Amino acid sequence: MLDCTPKEHKERNSGGAINPAKTCQPLGAMYAALGIHGCLPHSHGSQGCCSFHRMHLSRHFREPAMASTSSFTEGASVFGGGANLKTAIKNVFAIYNPEVMAVHTTCLTETIGDDIPNIIKSTEVPEGKIVIHANTPSYVGSHITGFSNMTKGMVSYLAEATLPVKREQVNIIPGFVNPGDMREIKRIVKVMGIKSIMFPDTSGVLDAPMTGKFTMFPQGGATVAQIKDSGNSKLTLALGRFASSDAAELLVQKCQVPATTLKTPIGIKATDALLVALRRAFAQEVPYELEEERGQLVDIMTDTHFHFHGKQVGIFGDPDIVIGLTELVLSLGMKPVHILTGTPGGAKGSVTGSFEEEIQAMLASAGVTANIKSGGDLFTFHQWLKNEPVDLIIGNTYGKYIARAEDIPLVRVGFPVLDRSVHSYLPIVGYRGAMRLIESISNALLDRADRDAADADFELVM
Amino acid sequence: MAVTEKELQEILAQYPSKVQKNRTKHIFIKDGAESAQVIEANTRTIPGIITNRGCAYAGCKGVVLGPLKDMVHITHGPIGCGYYTWGTRRNKAQSDDPTQNFLNYCVSTDMQESDIVFGGEKKLAKVIDEVMDIFHPKAITVSATCPVGLIGDDISAVARSAESRHGVPVLAFSCEGYKGVSQSAGHHIANNILMERVIGASETEKAAGKYPINILGEYNIGGDSWEIERVLKEIGYTIVSVMTGDGSYEELKNAHTAELNLVQCHRSINYIAEMLETKYGTPWLKVNFIGVQGMSESLRNMALYFGDKALIAKTEEVIAREVTRIEPLIEQYKKICDGKTAFCFVGGSRGHHYQGLFAEIGIETVLAGYEFAHRDDYEGRQVIPTIKTDADSKNIPELHVNADEQRFRLKVSPEKMEELKQKIPLSDYAGMAVTMKDGSVIVDDLNHFETEEFIKILKPDIFASGIKDKYVIQKMGIPAKQLHSYDYSGPYAGFNGAVNFARDVSMGFASPTWNFIVPPWQDEPLLTGTVTEEGVA
Fold first, then answer.
1. Tell me: the pLDDT tens digits for B111-126?
2. Which of A158, A231, A405, B254 could form a disulfide linkage to A1, CB 3.0–4.6 angstroms apart?
3. Residues B73, B193: contact at Cβ < 8 Å?
4. Out of B23, B26, B187, B353, which one is annotated catalytic?
5. Given strand B480-482, what is the order of strands in its sheet?
6. pTM of the prediction?
7. What Å distances lie between residue A368 and A335, A362, B45, CA to CA?
8. What is the C-alpha to C-alpha distance for residues B386 and B274, in angstroms, rounded to an integer?
9. What pLDDT, in 10s, does the model give residues B409-463?
10. 3-state class of B231 per DSSP?
11. Which residues, 6+ apart, have CB-to-CB distance to B219 below 8 Å?
């Protein structure tokens, strides 16, 4: 497995990637757009992109992922895709009748410079229907950037400040996480007794139930009315700097809704931070229900600390998730020694500096040193592991090749997970999500210990 | 159950008029009484229609080149294109030298904004150098993506100069995603360069072994090619190369030494099949290794071509043994499947190939179609002279080859060829429509709207297509069988493949999970009791 990857690490400076740890913007934009109720994402480009993005989302969620495309031909690529987009808008509303079309772009349409807002303006959109857009050039950032850009698009087209006094409600931008995570975050805020608007919200869309009927626009998703009303909220919590803070910043500028950027609430510290932020802003006591969950989590962490303590771990994936996972494993006494994301550097308007600095700061306070890289690839990650093996890898499905090659257990977390099911329904965020992660990590390490133990050392109780 | 002409018109009438006019030409109801039913195919996709189609890059890099295991395939573009074709098509391969099998790698130039602005040629050259330095492959391919053509990167020039720098072939493929109207353009582009640069590139003049053949248009999805090869080798054939499942640069170079080319997927490889015949005098035979009938008939046709008595006898012996072995295995599944109906909508060949196998387990295909096939795949190759290349596809280069002065050799005398052509599909393909029953629906570039509409009328028991459809169909309570990825099972080709397919399809019907869709309380009144004259008791 991966026999062509040498142990010897040579500097690669071409800027090319071998086995990437990211994909391109439009996928994230498509995912975000599916988090609007009644929305059909539209890919303005040649149709290959749209098919690939739908396929990838379907493989991760095991759900339909609907989207339309402008289906460029060479002629449109040379002379501009205005006519294609206009035709597409007319056809989509006539045939599929969504409430909203959310247009994103590809490297093709960004390179030729199609002026999307103008094309939309000059197209007849049926009464009561909406077309929004985001520019999502594939040659900038990653799918996380695309998610961020489409979420910004929602704010710029829809959010409105219509009230003189802000409402007692919080906007939550959950970041590029699973529907299960979005459900859990909404539950936590609800238990806190606070009204919230979450956007995008793919719960009820990409985890829709089987009813015997296919619904093109499932019940879930943030409604247009909710996103509009986000301009009237008292606070926006952007969960995950890379995926969420740009949209929150735009809400500050456009609707004067104050924003706080927090880590994706993975693990005890980041979940605490979420509750503290909500408590402070809305003067709400944290109810016993959540204190109980937290206490259970600490109980579990204490009971099982000997499973984890000092174990070395390599983590890769999307930056907000990797930051959260790093904090979680540190809280368990583990040693993260290789940490990598494919998404480049510090996002624009970055709140706490670059990915590498943020990870470095967490490790420094724990007294741990590690290889850290943003904009890296799995070829690099694998070479790190060959030179400094670890006890556990945490990452997406692509990690399974490295895990097999180096005989290291893998815990699948993040996007995409293409070879296991259920993962998208259950949270990794919040205290309950942390319990689930701890169970997965613990099971992986103990299964390995069982597998490797001599018969005489094979334990009944662990 | 069939769709009437009236019902078809009602479906189409729901479209805006321009769309209606267009789509009308892409659908017909099979009627054997009508001579030569014409379909429009291989034309541009309607924007916003929700097509299942992909792009030329997918057809070139993803389908044809990707399976070649000892070459490093570099995607010149932003990260997505390379990423989405990394491990997603299940073209299996194994290698005696695992350090020369690159199938688990995804190499991309990962173009950034500055590459779009200032050009990406230098970066591409550097990536090729790094690939040589790290992997030392036998050859490298470079596939272009959408922006490459627009910014004017000359990937052929970069490839040429890298080739002279490193002394290994570096092949450039201008398969920008916007070329043509579908994956099909990419097949053609890949065929041209492989023919020009790889096939025949070795010094070998004669194949080592009896009955040397190439298998064309077989990508070893889920191990299909291995199952086919198992049988062919036992009969006594020498397999020179497979294009391109578990294929390699090293094998492909010798493809000119075969005595016969077998064409499994006509759409993706017929260009090479034709060119091999022109250049080396090697005829091609349309085969179908899917289904017991298809497999057996293909083996018999091959034996007939070589005409050797021992070969014919061995062929019959192997067929008899295999059929006897698998018939009882399939029989148990047939009991579950018998009498059911299927939709079969797959890329450019399986929409046809699987109908026979479905029929063998008792399932009738009532609707079939292709994403990106051409008229010849629907109607048969005899229509090729009447196909007009439209504006969207005319920029796909046609490669013209001539008879090779040294190597051209008629493998069979012209008289014998004519005689064989009466019996077996030599250098010919009759298309999908001919084998379909009257009343069945044939649809080109089926879209989401039509999928739902045809399901409403025909209520198929199973829908065979791909991942984008799968969960849509299953949400309706209908089993969906992926015929691109085989739902991660396989092989489905050959004799063992038929058993696997029958097992997997019957599993789809027999699974208890379908029984849980309706909650029990929806079948039950909320209040129970008896109604008396005074009211509810």
1. 999 999 999 999 999 9
2. A405
3. no
4. B187
5. B27-29, B441-444, B363-370, B340-346, B462-465, B480-482
6. 0.97
7. 7, 9, 55
8. 18
9. 999 999 999 999 999 999 999 999 999 999 999 999 999 999 999 999 999 999 9
10. helix
11. B63, B67, B89, B91, B225, B244, B245, B265
